[in-house]
Design goal:
- This protein is an alpha/beta fold.
- The chain has 3 domains: 81 residues, Winged helix-like DNA-binding domain superfamily/Winged helix DNA-binding domain (Arc Repressor Mutant, subunit A, Orthogonal Bundle), CATH 1.10.10; 98 residues, D-Maltodextrin-Binding Protein, domain 2; 97 residues, D-Maltodextrin-Binding Protein, domain 2.
- The chain is 40% helix and 23% strand.
Length: 303
């Protein structure tokens, strides 16, 4: 006869693996050693007398028993967390690691300065921010939460719109004094232009230059929004910059202010992680801080 007294801590570990679909990603999010995690899952299978998952080099596949246990644990998880929150009157103390992937403009200039607030809310939670101009594979756990430019259309994802934002043309007053201020789009051809390295643009959403002018030609190409921002501030030329970043720089002015590009940030979480308390807490925080900064993202008509 098998022992039917399931170890609830082992069950929590199993749920993390079931959601992540792989041992390594789950171990990282839980903050535990992968060998320890594997041993605890073996102990859980022994306690229950059934195989819960098949392990391979590409990930973990749940058995029929594993699917049933995952469903039961997720059904119980919500009420338990709600009860804990009601009894304590505070946010649940989270542990483990959550990795956020984000475009570098949003990640560096906006999100990074906000993260100390999240660390104060959850002192045991370890955060990883990857602010780079690239796409993230949520299915391969390159990130637990991804901030994306535009709504993703593929993958088993839970998506939510964060905010609209805009971009405009900027330059320094000194640059314009030396080279003249363009009166229309055609005048841009006589100026030094700053933009992305064209063959390294990770998503069509970032191809701002062609949206403004088919004849746009970069004198300086940088594969980073913050790199372009700093170069334009240093007098490199005219660049297409995020209004919520550039509008706060006193040494920049808008050029051809009638030209504005609109985009939107979305968050995406793989559906396997939609019930993770840690990921849910970070997602709520992202939504909250962006909402609190609504006026910053709202309009290009600040200058």
């Amino acid at each position: 006869m098998h022992n039917t007294d399931m170890n609830w801590e082992d069950a929590r570990l199993f749920l993390a693996v079931a959601r992540a679909g792989q041992m390594l990603g789950a171990a990282r999010s839980l903050g535990v050693n992968q060998a320890t995690l594997s041993r605890r899952l073996t102990a859980l299978e022994s306690d229950l007398g059934t195989r819960l998952l098949f392990r391979s080099t590409t990930g973990c596949q749940l058995t029929e028993s594993g699917q049933k246990l995952k469903k039961a644990l997720e059904a119980a998880e919500g009420p338990i967390l709600s009860a804990v929150l009601q009894l304590s009157g505070t946010e649940l103390d989270m542990s483990g690691t959550v990795r956020i992937g984000a475009p570098d403009g949003f990640g560096v200039s906006f999100l990074a300065p906000q993260l100390p607030r999240l660390m104060d809310l959850h002192p045991s939670l370890r955060l990883e921010l990857v602010p780079v101009s690239r796409t993230f594979s949520l299915s391969q756990r390159e990130a637990d939460i991804a901030v994306l430019i535009g709504r993703p259309s593929q993958g088993r994802l839970v998506v939510r719109k964060l905010t609209d934002y805009s971009l405009s043309l900027y330059a320094t007053p000194d640059y314009l004094a030396q080279r003249g201020t363009p009166k229309d789009i055609e005048d841009l051809s006589a100026h030094r232009l700053v933009g992305y390295v064209e063959d390294l643009i990770p998503t069509p959403e970032l191809n701002f230059e062609r949206e403004i002018s088919k004849s746009w030609r970069n004198a300086l190409a940088i594969s980073s929004a913050m790199g372009q921002f700093e170069a334009v501030r240093a007098g490199a030329g005219i660049g297409i910059l995020h209004d919520y970043i550039a509008s706060e720089a006193e040494d920049l002015v808008r050029v051809l202010p009638e030209i504005t590009i609109s985009r939107a940030y979305w968050t995406a979480v793989h559906e396997n992680l939609r019930s993770s308390p840690q990921v849910a807490a970070v997602s709520r925080f992202l939504t909250k801080v962006v909402e609190q900064s609504r006026e910053r993202f709202r309009s290009a008509d600040w200058k």
